[in-house]
Structures
1.
Amino acid sequence: MDRLEEFIRNNRDGLDKLDPPVNVWKNIRKSLQQGKFPVIKWLAAAAALVIILSSSVFLLKKGVRGRELADPHLLQLKETEIYYNNLANSLYKQAAPMLTGSPGMQKELTADITCLDSICTGIRKDLKDNVANEEVIKALIRNYRMKIQILEEMLEILNEDENIPEKNKSHGL
């Protein structure tokens, strides 16, 4: 047996007679409340906030993804938009160097593309209201096709204009 245990057993009656003053327990409670408890409270609140925010972001993303996967029209439309946007960007990159010499054409092209983009934005709003509506999807695809057609025609005109001076130079001596 330990000497402390032995001492406590032998003097138990004398130790139990003494009660600490009431202020001692109050001071102990205050020090516990001022110490670790508020830190734990704030950490718990912060952890709960992080869990709630991450869960909501996850569920929102999953909801959008689930809706896309559930509706084949949305998936097809997303692929179609990617295709047409890539094609339009490619055509614009081809035309950009030639447009620097034709500011009028560049202004006209920018106005046409801006107009089609605003129409596209309106169609997308309609699409959010009624995803399965085939007419809305077809209108969006027609809009993309018009944009491609405008870019192709502009590129064709620019190529013709660029080739004309070369023909004249080759004939001149």
Note: The longest helix spans residues 134-171.
2.
Amino acid sequence: MLDQLIKLVEQNAGDAIVNNPAIPNQFNNDAIQEVAQQIFTGLQGQVQQGNLQQVVGMFKGSSGSSLTSNPMVAQIISSVAGNFAAKFGVSPQLAQQVVSGLVPQVMNQFVNKTNDPNDGDFDLQDMMRNFSGNSGLDIGDLLGQFSGGKTGGLGNVLGKLFR
């Protein structure tokens, strides 16, 4: 899944990274991979902190707000910007500017691809298994909450997550 996320960042990194004169060209590939890795790590951290419902809600579009105002996305942006500035020798302000434009774009496409039944590369069930490290995780009950279906309860889902 990280490979697909790297591809999404590559597709959106044109002006933010590749064509940005403040970022030396020899850092382009590393910068793209760093952004993708930090997005993955940020989402993984949210799931491992017990925010499974919020992460699934963001991917199912039930958060009720845009991704730019989502606290999880804001936290990812902050983390990516800090790492970006430290690793690539750009100012914190430039890093924030680059990341603030790029991460929401990538996250929006990430969410759209996850919800596209014709795109098998981004399966929400597989993503949550990757983020949680639990290969037996079944988020069907939780997904039912977002589709109006009957659920077995969030407690059942969280209990499966942390076995």
Note: Residues 85 and 92 are 5 Å apart (CA to CA).
